[in-house]
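Section 5: illustrative case.
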């Protein structure tokens, strides 16, 4: 049987809206534009947690974070979790990683046969946070904005190496013998805001859009947003030139990344692999870039949670899919595309193969869920999106709720939750989250127990030995 190959590209920190294909008026991502002509572009795809490790672990297993239990960036995934690379290998595939998947702990592969290059982000153990210790205010402003400039960095060098080894893998003369899945994890456009001059100069100083919140907006932010600003030193008035440099470098990193996507697709074509390869492009989460007074991710605003999803395949449609989907749908989609029986596996996602082959969105679920259980909160937080509605729900004795109408208020400035008119939709969407979580207070206690356990283990096992 002729099984399709897979080229799966996951960037780091690429918000969907920061690309020309998703409507940005300035940022140039011509290869994503070309992908849109050849395949499907999912306009409302979200990551399942706006943070590296939990988001990527859910992508690997197809499970919601609350089921997968990879709560934060220092929580390793158990090695006996079944992942899509293991299942592909069990069905005759060669499944390899090139670059980042942020698989921390003793098992850096979780089913991939090997890493063709390396993952620079698993070398540095990240700080461990505990909800019981509360939020500490940053002692100084976030450093990456003052460091923004043109030039190169170890992350640029890593991406060049990841690209080179991936192209070398695709150019191997034996590549046609067995079906393969090559998963390429680029670092771009993740900070540091440093990018080679040719990309930087494309945007700096004037070819950018500055954050422009309406008057008073920063005083009305949710508790979660206010905590993030305090904890990460984001509530600081940087000078405008440095903000322009940061945004220009991020835009430049998007174009730098887009070139690499194009080069990988060209390598498929040059090696006669394109016609039998399914190509997927997505990212683990986005970046706020100063909107709502926030940088980095960790929030459920569009810039942080909505990520690109483009899929090209020999029998797939070209066009837009507008119903909300999420990255954990890729687990069943990849297996389904490889003709593997899905019934024997446990996963939370839905296969996208039907919409990819027919263009008919009717069979897709009408809502998606994303969750956050890491630093910057003291309680479980979740997001449910259905049609034009986005609900953000923080568990507490008195739950904190935000509701946005994405059609009327695409910038998410107008929280409708205090208006009794919206009680019905709030009840419906929060019910989906409670249904997933069961008792939210039990979930909170379970996460705290896990955080405290890891704190003790780290004390004796050493930082970075196990996680
Ligand atoms: Ca990330």
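Designed sequence:
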């Amino acid at each position: 049987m002729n099984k399709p190959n897979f080229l799966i590209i996951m960037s780091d920190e690429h918000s969907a809206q920061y690309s020309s294909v998703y409507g940005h008026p300035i940022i140039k991502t011509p290869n994503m534009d070309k992908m849109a002509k050849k395949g499907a572009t999912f306009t409302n795809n979200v990551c399942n947690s706006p943070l590296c490790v939990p988001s990527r672990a859910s992508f690997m297993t197809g499970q919601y974070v609350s089921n997968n239990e990879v709560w934060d960036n220092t929580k390793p995934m158990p090695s006996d979790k079944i992942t899509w690379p293991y299942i592909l290998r069990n069905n005759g595939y060669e499944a390899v990683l090139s670059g980042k998947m942020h698989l921390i702990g003793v098992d850096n592969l979780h089913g991939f046969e090997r890493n063709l290059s390396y993952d620079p982000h698993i070398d540095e153990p990240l700080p461990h946070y505990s909800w019981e210790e509360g939020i500490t205010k940053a002692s100084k402003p976030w450093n990456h904005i003052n460091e923004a400039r043109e030039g190169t960095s170890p992350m640029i060098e890593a991406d060049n190496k990841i690209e080179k080894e991936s192209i070398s893998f695709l150019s191997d003369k034996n590549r046609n013998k067995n079906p393969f899945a090559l998963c390429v994890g680029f670092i771009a456009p993740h900070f540091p805001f440093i990018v080679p001059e040719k990309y930087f100069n494309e945007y700096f100083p004037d070819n950018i859009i500055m954050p422009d919140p309406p008057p008073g907006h920063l005083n009305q932010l949710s508790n979660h947003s206010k905590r993030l600003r305090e904890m990460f030193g984001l509530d600081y008035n940087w000078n405008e030139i440095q903000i322009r440099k940061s945004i220009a470098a991020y835009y430049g990193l998007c174009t730098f990344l887009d070139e690499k996507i194009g080069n990988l697709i060209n390598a498929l074509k040059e090696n006669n692999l394109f016609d039998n390869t399914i190509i997927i492009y997505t990212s683990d989460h986005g970046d706020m870039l100063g909107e709502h007074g926030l940088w980095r991710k960790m929030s459920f605003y569009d810039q942080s949670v909505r990520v690109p999803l483009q899929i090209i395949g020999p029998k797939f449609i070209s066009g837009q899919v507008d119903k909300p989907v999420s990255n954990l749908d890729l687990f069943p989609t990849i297996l389904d595309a490889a003709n593997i029986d899905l019934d024997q596996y446990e996963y939370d996602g839905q296969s996208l193969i039907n919409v990819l082959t027919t263009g008919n969105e009717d069979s897709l679920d009408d809502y998606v869920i994303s969750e956050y259980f890491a630093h910057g909160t003291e309680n479980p937080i979740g997001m449910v999106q259905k049609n034009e509605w986005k609900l953000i729900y923080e568990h507490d004795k008195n739950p904190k709720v935000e509701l946005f109408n994405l059609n009327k208020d695409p910038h998410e400035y107008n929280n409708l939750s205090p208006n009794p008119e919206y009680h019905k939709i709030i009840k419906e969407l929060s019910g989906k989250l409670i249904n997933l979580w069961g008792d939210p207070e039990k979930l909170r206690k379970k996460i705290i127990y896990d955080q405290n356990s890891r704190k003790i283990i780290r004390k004796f096992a050493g930082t970075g030995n196990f996680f």
